[in-house]
Structures are given as C-alpha cells and as structure tokens.
Amino acid sequence: MTKQFVCAVDVGTGSARAGILDASGALLGRAERPIAMNQPKPDHAEHDSRDIWTAVCTAVRAAREKAGVAAGDIAGISFDATCSLVVRDRQGGQLSVSTSGDKRWDTIVWLDHRAIAEADECSASGHEVLNYIGGVMSPEMATPKLMWLKRNLPKTWNEAGYLFDLADFLTWQATGSLARSQCTLTAKWTYLAHQDIAWQRDFFELVGLDDLFDHGNLPEKASPVGVDIGPLTAQAAAELGLTENCRVGAGVIDAYAGALGVLGGFAGDDHNIGRHLALIAGTSSCVMAMSPDPQPFAGVWGPYYGAALPGLWLSEGGQSATGALLDHIIRWHGAGGEPNAAMHARIAARVAELRAAEGENLAPRLHVLPDFHGNRSPLADPHAVGVVSGLTLDSSFDSLCKLYWRTAVGIALGVRHVLEALNENGYLIDTLHVTGGHTKNPLLMELYADATGCTVVEPLADEAVLLGTGMVAATAAGLFPDLNAACLAMQQGGKTRAANPAAGARFDRDYRIFLEMHRQRQVLDAIR
User: Fold this and answer.
1) Does the structure show a pLDDT above 90 at 1?
2) Does this model's pTM top 0.85?
3) Which of 219, 258, 326, 418 is the most buried (most CB within 10 A)?
4) Are 267 and 290 in contact (CB under 8 A)?
5) Could you tell me whether strands 74-81 and 5-11 are parallel, antiparallel, or unpaired per DSSP bridges?
6) β-strand 276-281 against 285-291: which pairing, if any?
7) Do the beta carbons of residue 56 and residue 170 sit within 8 Å?
8) How far is it, in rounded angstroms, from Cα 153 to Cα 131?
C-alpha cells in the first residue's frame, strides 16, 4: 500500500511556506518564497494575489522535492493564510484595491488600517453580530474594508464578482469551488455559524453593504474546517506539481492553524482544553482559547463557533504589533540599524550581560506601553498609541538594549492583560503554548513565563502552523475519520518552562505601572 502524505501551505504577511508531512505529523520537507507588499500610503498595505499563488506553487514544488515524496503520494492539501481580502471581477480577473489603480494590487492585507472610520461605524451600529466579535469591530476584519472599497473605489466595487478571505481564495484557485471556510467567515465576516440563518443581512444593510451578496459569490452555508472541498483541478495540479487525485480541505486563518498545531493534543478533551492558551507570535501576536460553551465579553474577538475544532467556541485576542514593534525599536534608535536575526541575537546577548552586571531589575524606570499599532485586546481600541516613559539622553548601544528589554517586558505584560481578561470571564488558563517567531527570542520566551506566572510550552514541531494545516489536509484526504482524530494522531508535544517564582514581585510591580499607563493615556486623550 502506498504511504500517504499531505501538503500544508501557510501564507503569512511576507512569504508563502509549504510543508510535506506524513500521517504522524512529521515535517519531511519545507520551502518558503517571498511575497510582495505595496504600501502606497500610511495604513495602506496591499498584496498581488497572482504573486501569492505563484509563490505558493513554487514553495509546494520545492518542499515536495526536499521531502523526496512522489506527487501521487500527496493525498491532501490545505491552505492557511492571513485574513486578507481578495477582490476579483465577474470573470475572475484582478481588480485594484489600491488608490494607485494598479490592478495587480487586488488584495487588502490583514494589517491594513485604512478602514478605521468604517470599523467605528460598525461598532456604533449596536447590531447583534458585535456580541460575537468582542463588542467592537476591528479594521482588520472584512466588513469595514468592504465598506471602504465601496465608498472610495466605486468602480472596483461595481465590477467585483468574487470576494474572498485569502485562505478561501487559495482553495478556489486549487479547486474552482466557491466554498468558504467556517473559520474565515465566522472570524472575519460576521457569519454566525451557531445560528440556522448565519448571515445577518440586516447588518450589511445597516452599514451600506446591502448589495454585498451581488458582488461576493458568497455561499449561504460555510464549510467546516477540514471538509473535503474536492480534488485539485488539472491546471492547479500542474502548477503545484501534484495530481488531480489530491483532495483539498476547507482551510483556516493562519493563527487558527497555529492553534490547532499547539492545542491539537487536547482535541476532544472539552474538560481540560480551557486551561490552555495558544499564543501564535510573530510580526503580531494572536492568543486563542477554546471552550465547550461560549464566553462572550468585550475586548476579545469571538466567541466563534467551530472556527478551529468542531463543536468548540473559540475566543481570540491579540497584539497588533509585537515582533514588528521590536523591529521598529531597533530601526528607531540611533544605535540600531537593520533588525535582522543577527541584530536581535546581539541585543539579547548584551541584555543578558547587563542583567548579570546590573541585576535582574534592569532599567526599572523605563516602561513601554506597546500599543504602537493600536490595542487589539483586551481594549479593542485601534486608535490606541504606544507610550515610552523614562527616556534619557543616552543614545548608546546599551541604551538600545535596555529599551528593547523593557519593550519585550511590555509585550509580555500585554499577554498578561489579555490572559486576565479571559480568566475573569470564565476561563481558567494556566498554560501558554507558544509558537511562531518568538520561540527564537530567548528574552520573550523567558518573559512569557515569568511576567504571566503561567507554564509555557514550546512545541517540538518546528512549524506548528504548518502542522495545524497538515491536520486539516489529512482530514480532507480521509486519512482520519475527523479533525479531532487527525489532531490527536499528528500532535507533536512540547517542552515546558515553569515560571520563576522569584520574578513574581518584580513583574507584579511592572504590571501595576502598565495598567496605570493605560489609565493615564486615557486621561491625556480626554483633555480638550
């Protein structure tokens, strides 16, 4: 009998990654290709969906070659991607979402904040859908971006015939199917998967999108994560270097794939899964918790029904800029430069030396409120700004290291802020499962344990996001009876770091200051 493998594709902010996995979850080959981004104005960020598909195809071919697996042995493929918005015309061709008018730029990137005013309008509507997105609409979601398009690029809107979340666009490219994932629609398109009538058309009428369904080719019912959408088309199979026997699974948003990758070992364990938080941390950070019952509250997105594991409700929080913020600090400081891996490593090494020489309470009067790109959770305030307190005239490399360290502390305290909001509203989280680029940063990994008081688990899987998407692909391919079974069979476990109890008092003080800085920022904003 031919051994069966699956392909997982992960499209992030700057690159497309592909991995070939076996039925035990082992990653056999991985490849990555960059994708272009256009930023014509502040808060505008755009992709070219053809460029993304080309990068995906190239990465898949390279990953399969590295894995040494025959095309015919790849039984399933699935896609995860950022929650970016792809716009195509009625013939499937590209349509510009850019103020430049260039049709190449047909995708509004997830981090694009051009639609803040439209997001505020949605929040002011008071509609029921807000109860399932934490009470506040984010400009990173689909509805405000669609509103902005209709108002500012009416020609694009009038010609639009297909509107996709990026993961669903990739599924369409692969199969020709207009199916949409329950993950993408529920988390980003105000689709209420727990209700018989899931689309709330009166909400779209309320915000001026009464003609959305004339332009989007949206299905009435979403496809549960991992459902077999169909086989690859002949064209897609040729471009990907796979075969038409390869089945395509309903995909997920990238952070949700990471949640499956790190929390998959608790699939089916409804009693204990609520103790565990997935922290998918890279350019930005997402935190995800699941429970058998909905836990709605302001400032955390959701609860979303069936957006990752079947039958469970998911609450999503996050920080809009974390890895990107540390990069920014390096560029911003006079002693900084290019924020590459070598620079981050050099700073981390010097921070360790400074702590050894000056004590653990390094730069105790320097404090950073890390909301440089708004506060996604738990305040749900895209207008929030960052604050740095305690600066001097020192512009040496050591001063950069101290600012970097205290920024990392602020990022970890932001996770604690989200964590406390979750635990005050029905969760009992005591364990963080961290995946993404932050696992390569020793300062952040230490701080996530010590500043929150939680046990931190770092997955043994090199690529937890690819693992989660591989679980979805294996379900679609029929290698397992359902997604829970795939998650249990393919999960890889992790190594554990306990919080240092001696650090508790120091970070409790920092956290009190962190909360006071939030309060003082609000006071300053209120002065007229």
Assistant:
1) no
2) yes
3) 258
4) no
5) parallel
6) antiparallel
7) yes
8) 30
Q: Which tokens hold the place of 481?
A: 């009876």
Evaluate whether 253 touches 80 at the Cβ level (below 8 Å).
yes
**333 within 8 A of 400, measured Cβ to Cβ:** yes
What are the backbone dihedrals phi and psi of residue 424, each rounded to the nearest 5 degrees, phi first? -80, -10
- Angle at CA 257, nearest 5°, toward 307 and 60? 130
Whole-number pLDDT of residue 2? 54
Please state, in angstroms and rounded to a whole number, the distance separating the CA atoms of residues 65 and 402: 44
3-class state of residue 93 by DSSP: coil
For 334, the token pair is 């006079």
Instruction: Provide the token pair at 234.
Output: 């002949």
- What is the residue-averaged pLDDT of the chain? 96
The DSSP annotation for 201-247 comes to HHHHHHTT-TTHHHHS---SSPBPTT-EEEEPPHHHHHHHT--TT-E
In degrees, rounded to 5, the angle at the alpha carbon of residue 43 between the alpha carbons of residues 40 and 48 is: 50
Q: Is 156 helix (H, G, I), strand (E, B) or coil?
A: helix
| Residues contacting 440, CB < 8 A, separation 6+ | 341
Torsion angle of the four alpha carbons 203, 209, 46, 171, in this order, in degrees rounded to the nearest 10: 80
**What's the pLDDT tens digit per position in 257-271?**
999 999 999 999 988
DSSP per-residue string spanning 396-418: SHHHHHHHHHHHHHHHHHHHHHH
The closest alpha carbon to 306, from 191, 139, 210, belongs to: 191
